[in-house]
Amino acid sequence: MRYWLFKTEPDVFSIEDLQREKISFWEGVRNYQARNYLRDDVKEGDKVLFYHSNANPPCIVGIAEIVESGIPDPHQFDPNSKYFDPKAKVSEPRWYGVKLKLLQKFKQQISLSELKANVGLAEMIVVQKGSRLSIQPVTKKEFEIVVKLGL
Questions:
Q1: Cβ neighbours around 140 below 10 Å, total
Q2: Would you call 70 exposed, middle or buried from its count of C-beta atoms within 10 A (0-12, 13-18, 19+)?
Q3: Could you report the per-residue pLDDT of 68-117, keeping only the tens digit for each?
Q4: Is residue 5 packed enough to be buried (19+ CB in 10 Å), middle (13-18) or exposed (0-12)?
Q5: CA distance 1 to 76
Q6: Who's near 20: CB < 8 A, 6+ residues apart?
Q7: In the 3-class helix/strand/coil scheme, how is the chain assigned residue by residue?
Q8: What are phi and psi of 24, to 5 degrees?
Q9: pLDDT digits (tens, 9 = 90+) for 130-145
Q10: Which among 71, 134, 145, 151 has the fewest CB atoms less than 10 Å away?
Q11: What is the pTM of this model?
């Protein structure tokens, strides 16, 4: 099992949306490194720190679990979708997603500044200057520290 941090803008898709939907397809990733993680590395059973970016403050708000992985993003084939990619072919998809479900919404949000202040999280990708990738690997130790802070 691996651990991840998935960033989302809460006005687009929040943890409350995931809670309401029960299982949701993580769509719209259009960065090749993040796509590679979704296509090749994120697997069923992996745990996800659910991060609200572009929020005040940016923060981790809960935990999700991957329930299906390596799914070609159907929006890439839909000319009416904002995620449409004219270069994508059904036989050769360019973009992938996963399905996830909410495991737990944290009792308290863990802000980016709190993450940065925690010595045990000094190497966590999200606290690094210039870190913008929407899908990031997280170590087991980092995951456990964050979960303790949120419960």
A1: 11
A2: middle
A3: 999 999 999 999 999 999 999 999 999 999 999 999 999 999 999 999 99
A4: buried
A5: 28
A6: none
A7: CCEEEEEECCCCCCHHHHHHHCEEEECCCCCHHHHHHHHHHCCCCCEEEEEECCCCCCEEEEEEEEEEEEEECHHHHCCCCCCCCCCCECCECCCEEEEEEEEEEEEEEEEHHHHHHCHHHCCCHHHCCCCCCCEEEECHHHHHHHHHHHC
A8: -135, 150
A9: 888 999 999 999 999 9
A10: 151
A11: 0.94
Question: CB of 129 within 8 A of CB of 58?
Answer: no
The span from the CA of 43 to the CA of 68, in Å, is 7
CB 146, CB 47: distance < 8 Å: no
Token pair listed for 98:
């996963």
Cα 38 to Cα 33, 69, 129: the distances in Å are: 9, 7, 23
* List of residues 6+ apart from 15 with CB closer than 8 A: 50, 52, 61, 62, 102, 105
